[in-house]
Design goal:
heterodimer; A: about 160 residues; alpha+beta; Heat Shock Protein 90; about 35% helix; globular; B: about 120 residues; alpha/beta; Transcription Regulator spoIIAA; five-stranded mixed sheet
Protein backbone atom coordinates (compact mmCIF):
# COMPACT_ATOMS: atom_id res chain seq x y z
CA UNK A 1 0.00 0.00 0.00
CA UNK A 2 1.28 3.49 -0.77
CA UNK A 3 3.48 2.20 -3.61
CA UNK A 4 6.64 1.39 -1.61
CA UNK A 5 5.67 -0.25 1.67
CA UNK A 6 9.10 -1.85 2.06
CA UNK A 7 10.55 1.56 2.85
CA UNK A 8 8.07 2.31 5.59
CA UNK A 9 9.40 2.50 9.13
CA UNK A 10 7.37 0.41 11.57
CA UNK A 11 4.16 0.33 9.53
CA UNK A 12 1.02 0.19 11.63
CA UNK A 13 -2.43 -1.10 10.76
CA UNK A 14 -5.29 -0.66 13.20
CA UNK A 15 -8.68 -2.25 12.68
CA UNK A 16 -11.57 -0.96 14.79
CA UNK A 17 -15.34 -1.18 14.83
CA UNK A 18 -17.18 1.79 13.38
CA UNK A 19 -18.03 3.13 16.83
CA UNK A 20 -17.35 6.86 17.32
CA UNK A 21 -16.39 6.18 20.93
CA UNK A 22 -13.13 4.78 19.51
CA UNK A 23 -12.15 7.93 17.64
CA UNK A 24 -10.12 9.21 20.59
CA UNK A 25 -7.99 6.06 20.48
CA UNK A 26 -7.08 6.69 16.83
CA UNK A 27 -6.37 10.35 17.60
CA UNK A 28 -3.91 9.27 20.28
CA UNK A 29 -2.07 7.00 17.86
CA UNK A 30 -1.94 9.64 15.11
CA UNK A 31 -0.63 12.27 17.55
CA UNK A 32 2.07 9.89 18.73
CA UNK A 33 3.24 8.99 15.22
CA UNK A 34 3.15 12.62 14.06
CA UNK A 35 5.17 13.83 17.06
CA UNK A 36 7.61 10.99 16.58
CA UNK A 37 8.03 11.95 12.92
CA UNK A 38 9.04 15.49 13.92
CA UNK A 39 5.94 17.60 13.36
CA UNK A 40 5.43 20.62 15.61
CA UNK A 41 2.45 20.94 17.98
CA UNK A 42 0.20 22.83 15.55
CA UNK A 43 0.89 20.46 12.65
CA UNK A 44 0.30 17.48 14.91
CA UNK A 45 -3.15 18.81 15.76
CA UNK A 46 -4.02 19.56 12.13
CA UNK A 47 -2.92 16.07 11.10
CA UNK A 48 -4.92 14.53 13.92
CA UNK A 49 -7.97 16.55 12.88
CA UNK A 50 -7.67 15.39 9.25
CA UNK A 51 -7.46 11.70 10.11
CA UNK A 52 -10.26 11.99 12.68
CA UNK A 53 -12.46 13.60 10.02
CA UNK A 54 -11.65 10.91 7.45
CA UNK A 55 -12.56 8.12 9.88
CA UNK A 56 -15.65 9.97 11.13
CA UNK A 57 -16.78 10.32 7.51
CA UNK A 58 -16.55 6.55 7.10
CA UNK A 59 -18.65 6.04 10.23
CA UNK A 60 -21.30 8.54 9.18
CA UNK A 61 -21.49 8.18 5.43
CA UNK A 62 -20.04 4.82 4.36
CA UNK A 63 -21.65 2.94 7.28
CA UNK A 64 -24.62 5.24 7.98
CA UNK A 65 -23.77 5.41 11.72
CA UNK A 66 -23.72 1.61 12.11
CA UNK A 67 -21.40 0.75 14.96
CA UNK A 68 -20.76 -2.92 14.20
CA UNK A 69 -18.87 -2.58 10.89
CA UNK A 70 -15.08 -2.59 10.57
CA UNK A 71 -12.65 0.00 9.27
CA UNK A 72 -8.88 0.11 9.07
CA UNK A 73 -6.33 2.89 9.49
CA UNK A 74 -2.84 2.25 8.20
CA UNK A 75 0.02 4.59 9.14
CA UNK A 76 3.20 4.45 7.10
CA UNK A 77 6.26 6.48 7.99
CA UNK A 78 8.67 7.18 5.13
CA UNK A 79 11.85 9.25 5.27
CA UNK A 80 10.09 12.22 3.69
CA UNK A 81 6.42 11.82 4.64
CA UNK A 82 3.67 10.18 6.63
CA UNK A 83 0.96 8.30 4.79
CA UNK A 84 -2.43 7.46 6.22
CA UNK A 85 -4.75 5.00 4.50
CA UNK A 86 -8.35 4.58 5.62
CA UNK A 87 -10.25 1.55 4.34
CA UNK A 88 -13.83 0.49 4.80
CA UNK A 89 -16.17 -2.10 3.33
CA UNK A 90 -19.12 0.24 2.82
CA UNK A 91 -20.79 1.24 -0.45
CA UNK A 92 -18.60 3.11 -2.92
CA UNK A 93 -18.53 6.84 -2.25
CA UNK A 94 -19.15 9.22 -5.12
CA UNK A 95 -15.94 11.22 -5.73
CA UNK A 96 -18.11 14.37 -5.70
CA UNK A 97 -18.80 13.74 -2.00
CA UNK A 98 -15.08 14.06 -1.25
CA UNK A 99 -14.82 17.59 -2.63
CA UNK A 100 -14.83 20.31 0.04
CA UNK A 101 -17.66 22.85 0.08
CA UNK A 102 -17.28 26.62 -0.09
CA UNK A 103 -17.00 28.34 3.27
CA UNK A 104 -18.89 31.53 2.43
CA UNK A 105 -22.13 29.79 3.35
CA UNK A 106 -22.29 29.54 7.17
CA UNK A 107 -24.09 26.30 7.84
CA UNK A 108 -23.55 23.33 10.14
CA UNK A 109 -22.36 20.47 7.90
CA UNK A 110 -19.76 19.68 5.24
CA UNK A 111 -16.62 20.89 6.99
CA UNK A 112 -14.95 17.50 7.37
CA UNK A 113 -13.67 17.14 3.80
CA UNK A 114 -12.62 20.78 3.84
CA UNK A 115 -10.48 20.15 6.94
CA UNK A 116 -8.91 17.07 5.35
CA UNK A 117 -8.00 19.02 2.22
CA UNK A 118 -6.60 21.90 4.27
CA UNK A 119 -4.46 19.76 6.55
CA UNK A 120 -2.96 17.20 4.14
CA UNK A 121 -0.54 17.69 1.24
CA UNK A 122 -2.08 15.06 -1.03
CA UNK A 123 -5.27 13.02 -1.02
CA UNK A 124 -6.25 10.24 -3.38
CA UNK A 125 -9.28 8.00 -3.54
CA UNK A 126 -8.62 4.51 -4.91
CA UNK A 127 -11.52 3.89 -7.30
CA UNK A 128 -10.21 0.39 -8.05
CA UNK A 129 -10.27 -0.77 -4.45
CA UNK A 130 -12.54 -3.81 -4.41
CA UNK A 131 -15.24 -4.19 -1.81
CA UNK A 132 -15.26 -0.75 -0.28
CA UNK A 133 -13.43 2.55 -0.11
CA UNK A 134 -9.76 3.41 0.31
CA UNK A 135 -8.61 6.96 0.97
CA UNK A 136 -4.89 7.75 1.02
CA UNK A 137 -3.65 10.95 2.66
CA UNK A 138 -0.07 12.17 2.59
CA UNK A 139 1.71 14.73 4.78
CA UNK A 140 5.28 15.66 3.95
CA UNK A 141 7.68 15.82 6.87
CA UNK A 142 8.99 19.20 8.00
CA UNK A 143 12.44 20.35 6.77
CA UNK A 144 15.52 18.99 8.50
CA UNK A 145 15.80 22.09 10.71
CA UNK A 146 13.02 20.56 12.74
CA UNK A 147 12.64 20.27 16.49
CA UNK A 148 14.30 16.86 16.27
CA UNK A 149 17.54 18.44 15.09
CA UNK A 150 17.23 21.25 17.61
CA UNK A 151 16.73 18.68 20.33
CA UNK A 152 19.76 16.70 19.12
CA UNK A 153 21.97 19.79 19.11
CA UNK A 154 20.82 20.62 22.64
CA UNK A 155 21.71 17.12 23.72
CA UNK A 156 25.14 17.45 22.14
CA UNK A 157 25.63 20.93 23.62
CA UNK B 1 -16.52 14.57 27.54
CA UNK B 2 -18.47 16.07 30.41
CA UNK B 3 -21.23 18.67 30.01
CA UNK B 4 -22.84 20.63 32.80
CA UNK B 5 -25.53 23.29 32.51
CA UNK B 6 -25.70 26.01 35.15
CA UNK B 7 -27.05 29.51 35.66
CA UNK B 8 -25.14 32.69 36.42
CA UNK B 9 -26.83 36.09 36.52
CA UNK B 10 -29.82 34.66 34.62
CA UNK B 11 -27.51 33.49 31.83
CA UNK B 12 -27.25 29.77 30.95
CA UNK B 13 -23.68 28.53 30.94
CA UNK B 14 -22.72 25.17 29.43
CA UNK B 15 -19.45 23.91 30.89
CA UNK B 16 -17.72 21.47 28.51
CA UNK B 17 -14.64 19.45 29.24
CA UNK B 18 -12.74 16.89 27.18
CA UNK B 19 -12.91 16.25 23.45
CA UNK B 20 -15.84 17.36 21.27
CA UNK B 21 -16.02 14.84 18.44
CA UNK B 22 -18.53 12.77 16.47
CA UNK B 23 -19.46 10.84 19.61
CA UNK B 24 -19.68 13.60 22.19
CA UNK B 25 -21.06 16.40 20.01
CA UNK B 26 -24.53 14.82 20.16
CA UNK B 27 -24.57 15.41 23.93
CA UNK B 28 -23.41 19.00 23.49
CA UNK B 29 -26.07 19.52 20.83
CA UNK B 30 -28.91 18.32 23.09
CA UNK B 31 -27.81 20.58 25.95
CA UNK B 32 -27.15 23.59 23.74
CA UNK B 33 -30.47 23.44 21.89
CA UNK B 34 -32.35 22.90 25.16
CA UNK B 35 -30.67 25.95 26.72
CA UNK B 36 -31.41 28.10 23.67
CA UNK B 37 -35.09 27.12 23.78
CA UNK B 38 -35.39 27.68 27.54
CA UNK B 39 -36.17 31.37 27.30
CA UNK B 40 -32.93 32.47 28.94
CA UNK B 41 -31.81 35.86 27.60
CA UNK B 42 -28.31 34.54 26.94
CA UNK B 43 -26.40 31.27 26.54
CA UNK B 44 -22.64 30.85 26.88
CA UNK B 45 -20.49 27.82 26.11
CA UNK B 46 -17.50 27.52 28.44
CA UNK B 47 -14.74 25.85 26.40
CA UNK B 48 -11.92 26.36 28.89
CA UNK B 49 -11.44 22.61 29.31
CA UNK B 50 -12.09 21.53 25.70
CA UNK B 51 -8.86 20.08 24.37
CA UNK B 52 -10.11 19.06 20.94
CA UNK B 53 -13.00 19.90 18.63
CA UNK B 54 -13.75 18.50 15.18
CA UNK B 55 -16.18 19.42 12.41
CA UNK B 56 -19.14 17.81 14.18
CA UNK B 57 -18.47 20.01 17.23
CA UNK B 58 -18.13 23.09 15.03
CA UNK B 59 -21.37 22.13 13.25
CA UNK B 60 -23.10 21.92 16.64
CA UNK B 61 -21.94 25.43 17.55
CA UNK B 62 -23.10 26.77 14.16
CA UNK B 63 -26.49 25.14 14.68
CA UNK B 64 -26.64 26.83 18.08
CA UNK B 65 -25.76 30.17 16.52
CA UNK B 66 -28.54 29.80 13.97
CA UNK B 67 -31.09 28.85 16.64
CA UNK B 68 -30.00 31.78 18.81
CA UNK B 69 -30.90 34.12 15.95
CA UNK B 70 -34.36 32.53 15.69
CA UNK B 71 -34.99 32.68 19.44
CA UNK B 72 -33.39 36.14 19.85
CA UNK B 73 -31.03 34.72 22.46
CA UNK B 74 -27.61 36.23 23.00
CA UNK B 75 -25.06 33.50 22.34
CA UNK B 76 -21.32 33.33 22.86
CA UNK B 77 -18.27 31.17 23.54
CA UNK B 78 -15.44 31.74 25.98
CA UNK B 79 -12.18 30.24 27.17
CA UNK B 80 -11.14 28.75 23.83
CA UNK B 81 -7.76 27.06 23.88
CA UNK B 82 -5.41 27.52 20.94
CA UNK B 83 -6.46 24.18 19.36
CA UNK B 84 -10.16 25.03 19.33
CA UNK B 85 -9.50 28.56 18.14
CA UNK B 86 -7.30 27.21 15.32
CA UNK B 87 -10.09 24.93 14.10
CA UNK B 88 -12.59 27.81 14.12
CA UNK B 89 -10.10 29.91 12.16
CA UNK B 90 -9.53 27.07 9.71
CA UNK B 91 -13.28 27.08 9.07
CA UNK B 92 -13.29 30.90 8.80
CA UNK B 93 -15.82 31.01 11.62
CA UNK B 94 -13.85 32.84 14.31
CA UNK B 95 -15.45 36.15 13.32
CA UNK B 96 -18.94 34.71 13.09
CA UNK B 97 -19.19 33.82 16.79
CA UNK B 98 -19.05 36.11 19.80
CA UNK B 99 -15.86 34.88 21.47
CA UNK B 100 -14.71 36.09 24.89
CA UNK B 101 -11.58 35.45 26.90
CA UNK B 102 -13.18 34.35 30.14
CA UNK B 103 -16.44 34.04 32.05
CA UNK B 104 -16.18 37.47 33.63
CA UNK B 105 -15.87 39.22 30.27
CA UNK B 106 -18.52 37.00 28.67
CA UNK B 107 -21.09 37.69 31.39
CA UNK B 108 -20.36 41.40 31.33
CA UNK B 109 -20.84 41.63 27.55
CA UNK B 110 -23.80 39.30 27.27
CA UNK B 111 -25.66 41.04 30.11
CA UNK B 112 -25.10 44.57 28.85
CA UNK B 113 -27.71 46.48 26.90
CA UNK B 114 -25.24 47.34 24.16
CA UNK B 115 -25.73 45.78 20.71
CA UNK B 116 -24.49 42.22 20.64
CA UNK B 117 -23.30 40.42 17.53
CA UNK B 118 -25.08 37.29 16.40
CA UNK B 119 -28.61 38.37 17.37
Amino acid sequence: MGGEPYLSIRPMRIVISSDPRLLHVLRGVVRYRAQEAGFGPAEVEYLTLAIDEAVANVMRHAYGNRRDARLALEILTFPDRLEFVVEDTGPKVEPEALRPRALDDVRPGGLGTYFINCCMDAISYDENFAGGNRLRMVKRLPPKTSSRDEYSSQERG
Amino acid sequence: MNIHLRNADNISIIDCSGDVDLYSSTHLRETLLTALRSGAPGVLVNMTDVGYIDSSGIATLVEGLQLSRETKTRFGLYGLRSNARAVLELAHLHKVFNIFNDEHEALEKISSTEPFGGV
